[in-house]
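Pasting as-is:
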Amino acid sequence: MCLTKRLRGCLSMIKTLQLASGCYCRYKSFRGEDTRKTFVDHLYKALDQQGIYTYKDDITLSRGESINPALMKAIEESQIAVIIFSKNYANSTWCLDELKHIMKCKEQRKQIVMPVFYDVEPWEVRRQKRTYKEAFDKHELENKKKVKSWGQAVVNDPWGWLSAPLEQNRKYREDATTQELENKAKVESWRKALVEASNICGWETKQIANGHEAQGIKQIVDEISQTLKPLTSGENENLVGMRTRMQSLKSKLQIESRGVRMVGIWGVGGGGKTTLASSIYDEISGMYDGCCFVKNIRVESRMNGLEKLQEKILFGILNQKQVQEVGRVEEGRRRLKARLCHKKVLIVLDDVDHLDQLKALAGSHDWFGDGSRILITTRDDHLLESHRVVVTHQIRLFNHDEAVTLFRKHAHHDQTPMEEFEQLSEEVVSYAGGLPLALTVLGSFLCGRNIGQWESALARLKEIPDKDIQRILRISFDGLEQVEKDLFLDIACLFRWKKKDRAMKLFNACGFHPVIGVEVLRQKALIVINGYGEFDMHDLVQEMGHYIVREKHPKNPEKHSRVWKKEDVRTILAMDEATKFDNIEAIDLEDVSYEESQRFLHVSGKMNKLRWIDLGVYRWDNEQRDGSILPLHANFPPSQLCSLLIKDCIQQEQLWTGYKYLPNLKHMELVQLHNLNKIPDFAGLPNLETFILNECPRLEEIHPSIRHLEKLLFLCIICCPRLKMFPSITQIKKLETLELRSCEQLEIILEIQHEPQNNQRSFRFLHTALRKLDLSLCCLGDEEIGSDFWDLPNLEELNLSENPFSRLDFSILRFPRLKWLNVTYCEYLVELSELPSSIAFVLADGCCSLESFGDVSNCKWLWNVSFEGENKLDQHRGDTLIHSMLQGNAREHHFINVALQQKPNGIINRIFRGNTSKLHLPNDWYNDYCGFLICIVTDMSHPYIKIIIKQEDPPFNLSQESDEALEPIYNGNMTFIGYVSFGSLKSTKLFTSSYNVISFSMEDMDWSDDEATYVGMELIPRKSRSDEVQTTDCSQFWDEINQDEDYVNTFTIQQCDSESSLEIVWIPNSSEP
C-alpha cells in the first residue's frame, strides 16, 4: 500500500519478491484518514505475511523525491491496482487524480483493477451519492473559486488594462472560460473514473465474512494471491519447456484438493529438478499461509546441521524476525509439528540425499495443516519410497527442439546461428543429450567465440569433459558405496546396451550383489533398463564413468581398472612381455581377431586382478587360424577370475592340466571349442555355480569330479553329440537348473534305480531342488516319458520341445509346482492331459498331431496358452479354453493371452475390420467391470499392439468406432485373444477412474500385409461378490520376468507422453525366442 504523508489520499503498490527491482505487480489507492490505521494497516500486514512486498510511499520513497511523479510511475509499472473506496475517498483530489491514471492504465496497459468498498455501497460511488455527492459539490465550488475575478485581473495587470482595456477584457473572458471548461472536464473525468471503477466486481467489506474485518482481509488476500498466480509465472515463460512440465507436476500436486500431499521430483543431476520446483513455488506460493524454499539441503545439512534448516523453515513460514535457536534435531521436529500443524504451508526441500533429512524437515503428513504441499527434489527415488512419498515425478529431459532453443538462448542470444555455426550447434546439442545443465554450460562457454574456437572446444570435449558438468553429475557417483561404484563403472565402460540378464550373472559371479546394486543405480538416475532389457544411461553420465577410470593415467591404458576402447585393447596386446597389468580388472574383448585372442590368452595370466574373461571370435575369421598357436600362459586363468567364457578361440584339447585352484570362479562357459576332448578337474573350483558346455563336438565325457560341486546351481549342456556318459548329479543338492539339449546319445543323466532294458534309455528323476529342466531335442519317446516315475516336487519350468513322444500325462509325471511348459514342435504329440493345477504358461506351437488338450477348469493360474500352427483340436476348443481361463484368477488380477490357429466362435460378439479401434467406457465401468477382452484375426506374423487408456472430453457411452464386419474372412489366419484386468493396472499409480476411452492400434513387426485384419473389444463384468476370487500371491501367474533374456514381455504397462493416459503394449507371440 501507499501511505502518503503530505496528502490524505494514498496509493499503494505490491510486488512479489521474485520480480525484478522497480517492477511492481499491484497498486492500491485509498483515503488515508479513513483507513490508514485500521483496514489499510491490517491489509498491509496480511499481504506482507504472505510474502507479497507492499509499496508504501512513506517508507519506500527516498527523502526529497517528488511524491507525485514517483507514485504515477509506480502506477504505470504495476500489473494490479487495488482501490479502497471509503466515505471520504472523493474528498481527495490526489486520490481522484490517481484513480483517473489507474483507469487509463487499465485501458492502455491492461492493468488489473480490484475495488474494495470500505463502509460504502458501490452505488454511492457509481452515482456519486451521499458523501461522494458532497465531495463533488465541494470540488465544483472550489473550482469556481479558482477562476480569477475581474477585479483580480485588473490588480494583477493595471497598466495593461489602462493601455488596452478592450483587449484585456477579451483576454480575461477567454481565460476564464478556458479555466472553467478545464475544471469541469477534470471533474467529469473523475466522475467517469468512479463509474468505471465501481462497475468492476470487487469486495464490500460489510458483506464479506459477515463484516468480520480480519476474515474479510484474509479472503481479499487469498483472492489477490490467486490473481497474482499467473503473473508471477512470467519469468517462467522465458524458461524453455517449463510450461508443459509445470502443468504435469501441478496435476500431481492437486493444488485445489484437501489433505496434505508430498510429491517427489527425481532424476539425473542437471536435469532441471530445482528449476521446476522453483517455478512451481513461484506460481502457487501465494495460495498458502506460509511458504519456505530450502535450497541445497545436501550441502547445507553437512555444513551447518539439520537444526539450522529446521530454524529456516520456522523463520520462513512464521515470518518472525527472530526464531529461537533449535538445539537438537528432535527438538526441531517437535517445534515444526507444533507450529505448522494448523497452517496450510508450501515447502520445497531441494536436493535431498539422505533419509534423515526428510525425517528432520518433513517427518510425516500430520506435521502440516490441511491443504499443505511438500515438494522434494532428489536424485534418489528410493529416498522417496523410504519416506512413503507415493506421488513422484521423474524429470523429463529436453527433446531436440527444446534443446536447440535452450542452447541458442545461451550461445546465440536467442538468435538463429549463422550458417557456419549451424552444424556445430547441432553437434553440441547432440552431445548434451537433452540435459539442461550441459546445454546451458556449453552454450554460455561458446557464446561470442569464433568458428575455430568452437571446433577446438568440441574436439577437446571428446577427450576432457567439461568440469562444471562433471562436478554436478559426479555428486551421485560420490554418494555410492564402493561395491555400487564398481558396478556402475563396469556398466558405464563395458555393459551399456548389453542385455541386463546376462550381465547380472557376471556381476553376481563377481560378488557385486547386483540385484540391489542395480536398483540403487536406477533409483539414483544413473542407469535405466531400456525396452529391450538392456542397460542404458545418459551419454554424459557414461562419459563421467569413463573419465573416472582414465583421469589419473589418460595415456596409459595398462594402468586403467577397465579397458574398453578398441585402440587401448590393441595397445595392451602389443606390449612386451615385461609389461605389468596389475590394475586391469575387466577388458572388453568383443570383436577381437583370432590373432588378438591368442595374444590375450598368452598375456592374461599376468592380469592378477582380472575378474572375468569373455573371449570369442567370429567364424568368418577362420582364415587366420592356420598360423602358430601361442601357448596358454602358465597362470591361465588368473587366480582372481570370477567368470570364464571362451568361445571358438582355443585349439588346445584341454584348458589346463591337472589341479588348478580358482577359489573365486563362479561362472564357466565353454562354447564352440572344436578340439576340446577333456574337461578340467573341478576339484579346484569349490565355488562354481554355473557350468555351460555348448557345441563341443569331440567331447565324450564329463570329469567325475563334477559331482562334488556342492554350490552348482546351473548346469547346461547343448549340442555335444559324442557325449554319452554323465556322472551322477544326485549329490549336487543345490542344483536348480538342468538343461540337456541336443544330446541324442546321452545315457546317464541322473541316478538310475535299475538297469536299462532292451537297449532303451531309462530316466528316473529324483531331485528335490531342481526348478528348471530342459530336455529339448533329446529324442525322448513314450518309453522315456511314460515308462518310469518322475518325481520333481519343486520343478517350475519344463521344456520337452522337439521330442517324438505322443502322450504327456501329468498324472504320471509328478510336478505339483509346474508353472511353465514348452512342448513346441512335438510333431507326434496327440494328447496333453491332466495339467497340474499350478500351470500358468503353456507353449504348444507346431504340434500338428495334437487332438486333446484336456480340461483346464482346475488351472486357476493359467493365463498364457499358444497353439500356433496347424493342429487337430476341436474348433470350439478355443472358446472353451477362454471361458475356463476367465473363470480363474486372471479375471480380477492379471492378463490373458491365447494364440489359436483356428476360427474364433463366440469369443467376441462384435468384430470390426481394420487394425485400429476405440472403445468408449460407460460411467460406471470402474466398479462394474473387471477388465476388457480383445480378439484379433490377422495374417500378421508378429503383431505389435498398442492399447491406450485415457480421458477424453466429452465422455461417451459404450460404443466401438470402426466398420463392423458380419463375418471375418478366415484363410488360416491367426487368432489372438488378449485380456487385461483393471486390477493389474491399479498398482501403476497411473490408473484412474476418470479414464473413459480405450483406443487400440496394431502393426506388424515383420511389415506384412494387414488387409485381412479384424478386431473386437468387449468389457467383462465383475463376478458377484460370492464368486469373487481372492488372490493372495500374484507371483503365481509366472510372468515373463522368470524367463530367459530372449523372451519379451507379453504385456508391458508404461506411461504415455501425456501423464493423463496409460499405455499397454501387447505382443501376443512374445514367447517365441
